Amino acid sequence: MNLTQLIEQQAYYQGYTYAYPHKTSYRSFSPISLADIWANEDKSQLFLYAHIPFCNMRCGFCNLFTTANPKQPLTIAYLEAFARQAKAAHQALGEKANFTRFALGGGTPTYLNAKELSFLFDALTCFNLDYQTIPSSVETSPETISEDRLQILKDHCIKRVSMGVQSFHKKEIRSVGRGQHNAEVFQSIEKIKAFNFAIFNLDLIYGLAHQTPESWEKSLKTALCFEPEEIFLYPLYVRPLTGIGKFGFNWDDERMKLYQQGRDTLLSYGYEQMSMRYFRKPIVNQLESGDYCCQQDGMIGLGCGARSYTQQVHYSSEYAVGRSGIKAILESYNARTEDDFSQITYGFKMDEDTQKRRFILQSILHMTGLSPLLYQQRFKSNPFTDYPELKALIDLQLINLVNGVWTLTPKGLSLSDLIGPWFYAPDIEHRMNEYSLI
Ligand code: SF4
User: ipTM score here?
Assistant: First the structure.
């Protein structure tokens, strides 16, 4: 189906393109040594990502690789395996690897108690991160905030703390299986703010059951009371094997209207829109001084569920959404030795077409935009010659040329979740469709 037809059918929410190719296009392959994979890579500006696949509860909409309420023997075994993986990765990368960005995600990394968080940071010591200067970020949830955990984050100069709140409306929150109470959320936010992290982010969701324009406005205004430097607005997706995916959802799709309402509210409060989901105060631009470039630079992911990106291969552990699938993958991760971690057996070998499409998607879906000059430098060709279908974005006024860079128009921003999947290569789409999710 072409872009015009998709828009006419109002098929606005095809999928969130946060990475390309999607993990469901990864497959097993014969072992390749980690050292070989990284041997010819530029290691001067790497992103280190650590994944903690634990949460207090499993939210009904969530398809991230995480498990609810694991007990201590599992978390300890996980951290020990994580330390073995960190050693193997450090050995493969060598002493010259330089990290210009760090993130701790999940799941909910602050599900770990203070002692476990310290263990995690100790396991990362070998990478010599310059915590003072590099941008760094940690995901949290309201019920896992405590002063001792925040102190550890502060001791490591974490710049950005993000909290998924999703809504301040009780019925909406219960509809996705979350048990949080506003009083606890407010207390947690106050605790975070008392530590003066440079950037505080709140995540909200639109399209929830029971949500109305009035209740959405209330959630937005409540979030704004805390003056977060960043706000992410996520459209609700009902995905296979998630809580609301399994039990059904009475879908009354008002997402586009709620998106426009949320966007207009945040813009009127002085936020800049950086992508369909991401809004920030202008000051964040000065605080974010990192050199990492997501289209080009490598990422090393540690932990079960984390992805790693080199120019030639994207790799990770296997993926699941259902509880039993995640449990099996976690058990296998925890049993791995340092030698096991020095081999890669699952991922995607990046051909030229996938590299080009990734570059275009990572650029164009963010307000940094697509620079034909940078594309030319990297691929020795022009994106519109390689992919003539991109001209439809110009014809439909979804992108504009601003200072030599193609950026989304307001209409293009609102249709990001349609534009992304529309531009996936047919073979990637085929792999994603034939993947059987566990
Ligand atoms: S949305 Fe966040 S808190 Fe909820 S299950 Fe997913 S990772 Fe955990």
Answer: 0.99
